[in-house]
Amino acid sequence: MGRNRLSGSVEHSGIERDPQYLRGRLTLICTKALESVYSSLMSDETAEQAPSTAPESFSIQVRGWGEDEDTARRLGEIVGVCVRELSRQIDLSGLDGVTVAGDFTEALAELDRGYETNYVLTPSNDAAIGVAMTPSVLREGQLKNHIVLNAYLAAGLLESGSELFRLALHTIAHECAHVEITAAYERCFPNVLLRTRRNNLHQICRWDVILACWDEYAATRICAQYGEDPTEGYEQTFVTMLESARGNANDIIRAYRLHGDHGQVFTEVYAEYGRLMKYTSYHLGNLDGQDVSIADRAVSQAALAGHWFAPYLPRLHDALRDLYGRFGDWNSEELFDVIGDIADDIVREGGVLFSGAGDGVLIDVPYTADTMPCD
Distance between CA 59 and CA 72 in Å, rounded? Predict the structure, then answer.
């Protein structure tokens, strides 16, 4: 069943999303939690609402936070209430657990992901600073998601009605949305995520961008009306990436003229343009979740005017909207390939040419005035 925007609520798989109801209810519940009334989860009012989709029990760990033990315990309780309530409107059947960490970077690096990997999870630190992440993990062969939150962000839930409260609620809703998105992909394409490796460098880079764009578009669209309105922040990040992506990619190519590593230049240039596409997807998903057209955003339109990326944005937007309209009913991964095709076109226009199939990729980086090493 696809998703349908319905005047302030969204229905999917029997779950009705009503952010205004949830905002008021969480304010009430979190206030009660501050008074140690965690039993509100079992209240008659809760029982009358949509059932929770989260596992009957899931772990919540609060670690590395400098507050006293009682405050840390209350924060864990409130986060648990928040996640449980969100699960009445977002499918959290694939949730593994939640870690609330003052030592956010260390918590990500130390997360038990259920499989061997040399890749160390780290917070985003480019056009945006990461304060939460929801990595996929394997538990007894089953794909799950584990939410990791910066404790100093999550602590906003201790200040009911404040701006920090709304920011924390929005961020947690965003991470919960990732749980639903991953579970939907797993149902359509079992044993692909984490368990299937793409067959060459191009496919690895391409699918990293495809999944990043899709995941962030869908997550921001699902959580757009929960808590804080993130529109201006997403827009500013989008504009920053528009201003910097081509220059950054050209710098990478200039460095390649000296080191000569074809695989490195391909990977780095593809990733740079992929970040532009990803942060564009954040912006577009949030706008669609609020029924706002990017054509009505003066800052975005001014940044796009005459920009080389302008023709690519509607292509990306159409691809993401189409995937969202088929949410959970995808019959082939090829439906996602259109995002990869856009990335390929951008990378080629940016001066890195490539071809090939199977295990090999032929890479050529022609000389241009913009990518010659500086004297």
Answer: 15
